[in-house]
Structure to design on (87 residues):
């Protein structure tokens, strides 16, 4: 990982800090164990996802709601899969 990548990860770690501890844990887990596998479009979608309100994110991540945006729906599925296969 180069300096630019390290700075990006640190910036995203800060954005993963939420008002809800559960979201902090889920998003940071994905950042550590799934983010590197994303292509540039999915990485941009992850940043858009981080701009959402906590309650909306929680509903999406626990499956109580589905994003209207297909790209975000696919990303939520990847995050949920990473959680299920957590080391």
């Amino acid at each position: 990982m180069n300096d630019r990548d390290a700075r990006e990860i640190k910036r995203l770690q800060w954005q993963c800090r939420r008002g809800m501890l559960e979201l902090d844990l889920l998003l940071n887990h994905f950042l550590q164990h799934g983010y590197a596998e994303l292509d540039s479009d999915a990485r941009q979608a992850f940043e858009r996802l981080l701009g959402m309100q906590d309650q909306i994110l929680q509903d999406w991540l626990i499956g109580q709601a589905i994003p209207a945006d297909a790209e975000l729906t696919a990303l939520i599925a990847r995050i949920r899969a990473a959680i299920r296969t957590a080391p």
